[in-house]
Structures are given as structure tokens and as C-alpha cells.
Amino acid sequence: MGQNVHFVQCGESFGCRQDSVWLAYSSLNGAAFLVSEKEKEFLRKECESGSGDSPELSPGARALLRDPVPQSVMRIPESWEDVYEVDFLMNYKCNFHCVYCYSAAGRSNAVLPWEKARTLVDFLFSEDHAAKTFYNIHFSGGGEPTLSFDLVRMLTEYIEKKAAVSGHKYKLSMVTNGSLLSSEIMDYLIAHNIELILSFEILEQYQNAERGQYDVVAKNLDRLIESDVRFAVRATLTADSAPAMPRMIEEIHTRFPGLKAVVFDTVLSAELFRTPEELKKYYDVFFDSFLEAEKLGEKYHVSVSGPFTNLLAFHRERTCFGKIVLTPEGRLSICARVSSPKEELFPCFTYGEITEDGRISVDREKFDRLMHENTIESAPECRDCFARWNCGGGCRLFTMSFPDESRRVFCDFQRKCVKYQVLEHIRQHFLKANGKPLEEHLKSLNLE
Fold first, then answer.
1. Which long-range contacts (CB under 8 A, 24 or more apart) does 387-390 make?
2. Can you give the pTM of this predicted structure?
3. How far from 397 is each of 58, 142, 336, 373, CA to CA, in Å?
4. Tens of pLDDT along 128-179?
5. Could you give the domains of the chain?
């Protein structure tokens, strides 16, 4: 039958007996429809013995077995020279003490040396680098980049200068806690078209408990809303704050009415979830709370997105794009969340450095190995999973930070999210075509 054809129980999603309704799903060619238990068995046998162009097959089997349709595929860089996601970590300094901080172990006063940052820019915008299509360049941490904003300025203007000569296209962004956004910084972001990602927990009790300085950041958010700065707000939810997502949307509607979009993200911290059961409870609460917040967002015209919003947008061979991350010490990491030698997993994610004499030294064999780990082909649990091309195999940092039992919890969460997204598409299509909810139709079939 092949790895791309799957049948997934989904009766409970429609208030029916679990095995009375099945999702027939082939993600690579876009086939997704509902069948009964009897129809599922018939299709399974057809798919095991036929091919997509066999005229004797049923329309359903032909749909499941047809060739993949063109769709956006997350491009994995073929080599170190082909990477197009780039992070400059400005420093190891921060004026916050977030409870879920992934880089707290590396705190120091170290700042990225200009000479090493310039060396990387020279390489990126030279003929030696193959990624000629588009760069996503991020200024982040590490630490808080606005504490080193003079360096952000120098890098921005140097990138502009180099790109004007080389013809490379790029987009700049900066991740910040929002506490140090002066008028001067905001004006600079506007003038140089730098998008801002503001990490903010929206509700005062969670911002102050988990990050700090609510009043300062809230006032700066007000100023951002009134300005021409391109920005997005991202809230990282812990087990304490995840249930409050609907209240956060209410708060946006009343306190920040000019804010029209928010991203809710799951937290990645093994220290916050001591057992797989705690992690499962967190994911369950996050999922339910997110859906409630999403509905409120529709009501108030606030776009709500999260970790599973775009799971169907394109196919993934792996979850992570793969990056060039230049750390404040001049090392090259594949993940922006692993940036300091003080972190236990640092040796597992770094693959090179910029030397004191200005050379870029890369362990290409290690880079290639890192890029081909945690893919849907390398992870045994992915091979027969219906969500494999939507999920991409999961985050390498998660895999190395959590025990195997927690990885299984994560996989269950991903499957739950993918199934929900697929079924939502089917629901919307049915409602548009038939003028009544799909649940109402299934209920009339007495499938309970």
C-alpha cells in the first residue's frame, strides 16, 4: 500500500463510535475524505494491490494512489553553502529572567565581535555561498539584542551594502523582550524595514510571573501599535499560562485593540515537565485552550496562530530548516536555542567556528549528519505515521532534551493536531458544498 496511504479512526471527532468513521488520507497528493469501516477495508485492499492509474480501481483508491500533486516543500539545504536561515546572536546578556529560558546557562557579558559578524556577512553575500534565492536573517539571543543595538545597526547597514552589490535578496527581523524599545530604535526599525518579534505574555499576572516588566512592555506595545513598525507578538505558554489563552484574546480585544495578530507557542523545557504524564496534560490543555482562543479571535478579528496552524501548508522532510547560527563566541550552531559552551548539548549542535584570524572553519561531515538526523526517514516512529510529511519528524532539541516516553507524547500531540487540521478542511468543504454541518449528516447515518 505504500507509506503515503493511511486510514485513521476519527469517529470521536464527530460524536460517533470511534471505529465507525475513518479518515482516508494521503498527504503528498492531497487526498483526504471520510469512509465507513466497511469502505475502509475495501479501499485498503485496493490500495495494497493496485496503482493510481489502474482503471479498475474505485475513485477513492485512485485518489489515494495518484501521483503527488505540486505543493510547497520545505527545502532542506543540500550543503553548508546552501543554508538560507541565518541567526546572529548579539550577546549573552539579558535584563529578564524568564522561567522557561533556553539560554540562561550561558549568561555572561560577552558580545558578538564585529569582526566575526562581518566575516559571516562577507561569506553569505559572496559567490562562495549557493543560497542565492532569499535569506531570512534574524538578530536574536543568546541574550536580549537591544542591549547591543549599536551592533544591530552596524550589521544591518553592512548587509544592505553587501546586498546592493551582490544582488542577494533578504529579510531582516529581530526578536526582543520589548522592554528597551526606545523611539530611536523604533525609528531605525521602520527606516530599515526590520520586522520585530515581541515576546510578551499579554496578561499582567503571567508576564510578571514568567518574564517581568509588564508595565514597560505593555506601554511599548501601545507605541508599536501606533507606529509603522512591522511586528508580531509571540506568547510562549507554560502549564500555568496555557489555560489562559482565551483570556489573552479578551485582553487583546479590550486592552490592546490595535493588535490584530498573536502567535501562541508551546514551551520547550524538560525541567518544567518532570514526567510524560505532565507533558501530556500540558499538550491537552494547550490544544483545547488554543481552539477556544482561535474562535474568540474570529469573533474579535484577531488572527490566532500556533504550532499546528500551518502543518498542512507544505511538506516537510524535517521540522527544522537548518541554520547558520553565529554565537557571541564566534561558534556556528545549527539551532538558535543552543548557543553557549555552558549548555550541556552545545557540542551536539555546533559544527564550526569563525577563527581569530577571520577564517570560517566548518566540519562539513558533522553539518551533513546534523541535517539528516531527525528526519522522517531517520526516525523509526515516523515511517508508518500518517502525519509524517506534515510534522517532519520533530525537533532535534526536544528529542535530545526529553526522555523517549515524552517523545511519544509529542508524537501523539502532533498526530492530534494534524488530524484536527485535516478534518477541519473536510468540515468546511462539506458545509460549503451542502449547506449543513458534517456532524449533522453523520448523525443522520446512525453511526453512533
1. 387/27, 387/311, 387/414, 387/415, 387/418, 387/419, 388/3, 388/27, 389/4, 389/27, 389/28, 389/315, 389/316, 390/27, 390/311, 390/312, 390/315, 390/316, 390/414, 390/418, 390/421
2. 0.91
3. 44, 16, 10, 11
4. 776 656 899 999 987 899 999 999 999 999 999 999 998 889 999 999 999 9
5. 6-71+407-444 (no CATH), 80-364 (3.20.20.70)
